[in-house]
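Support request from a user on the community tier.

User writes: "When I paste my structure tokens into the form, the page sometimes reloads and wipes my input. The last time it worked, I copied everything first. Here is what I submitted, just in case something in the input itself triggers the reload:"
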């Protein structure tokens, strides 16, 4: 189906609903999903939105993380999830799978996602030029004014500091991002400094090293992602179950 104003209009209400859930101090919590059953479980548990996790989706489809999924398979997985749930869906699209900004916006719309994460590094090995990445986000915003853009900042995965992360956050905010995601930032002092200087809602990864959700709320975080960790716990529980079944033989 071609991407056009009709499709954008149909997505305006769920996009606005997703955007409104980003409240500093009362964060949107996202136990990231990877397939239809996990997305339905998130919805049935009462969470206000469903987010995909690229690492978990990749693993489910038999690919390593890091844009190794064929782009058609990546968006087919997003589309299956979006068609199965009634809550807004935001998709982890890594660095965009090599798509131009307008094409990425169109693929997201066709899949039924109203939000996305976009990374500013290449496979978590090399930071992209911040100004060029801001231009990409600006084009993405122009292609779909409703799209809820969560700009992932990979500085802390590559040995950077809060000052550089904030510099990027401000560039991405000016380019039209709705939220910034300093993945890997886990210490309270750093989170507090980043939240205070970012200038727009902040997403924090709820990794084992990060503060608990109530403390993140106190620090002013507006969105809490669980990334691949829910999938990993589910798979660990599955392995434990299989071990028990094996022992019953």
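"...and here is what came back when it finally went through:"
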């Amino acid at each position: 189906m071609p991407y056009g104003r009709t499709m954008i209009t149909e997505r305006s209400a769920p996009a606005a609903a997703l955007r409104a859930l980003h409240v500093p101090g009362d964060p949107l919590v996202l136990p990231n999903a990877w397939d239809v059953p996990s997305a339905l479980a998130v919805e049935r548990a009462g969470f206000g939105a469903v987010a995909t996790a690229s690492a978990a989706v990749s693993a489910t489809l038999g690919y390593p993380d890091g844009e190794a999924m064929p782009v058609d398979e990546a968006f087919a997985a997003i589309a299956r999830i979006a068609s199965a749930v009634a809550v807004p869906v935001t998709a982890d699209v890594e660095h965009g799978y090599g798509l131009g900004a307008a094409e990425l916006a169109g693929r997201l719309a066709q899949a039924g996602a109203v939000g996305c994460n976009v990374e500013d590094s290449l496979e978590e090995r090399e930071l992209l030029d911040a100004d060029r990445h801001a231009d990409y986000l600006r084009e993405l915003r122009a292609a779909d004014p409703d799209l809820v853009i969560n700009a992932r900042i990979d500085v802390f995965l590559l040995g950077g500091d809060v000052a550089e992360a904030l510099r990027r956050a401000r560039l991405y905010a000016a380019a039209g991002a709705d939220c910034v995601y300093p993945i890997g930032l886990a210490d309270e002092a750093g989170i507090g400094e980043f939240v205070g200087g970012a200038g727009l809602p902040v997403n924090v990864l709820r990794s084992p090293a990060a503060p608990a959700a109530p403390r993140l709320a106190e620090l002013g975080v507006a969105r809490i992602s669980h990334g691949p960790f829910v999938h990993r716990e589910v798979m660990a529980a599955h392995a434990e179950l299989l071990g028990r079944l094996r022992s019953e033989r």
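Agent notes: The reload is a front-end session timeout and is unrelated to the input. Residues 107 and 114 are 11 Å apart (CA to CA). The beta strands are 28-30, 50-51, 89-92, 115-118, 121-122, 126-127, 148-152, 179-181, 203-205, 223-225. Escalated to web team.
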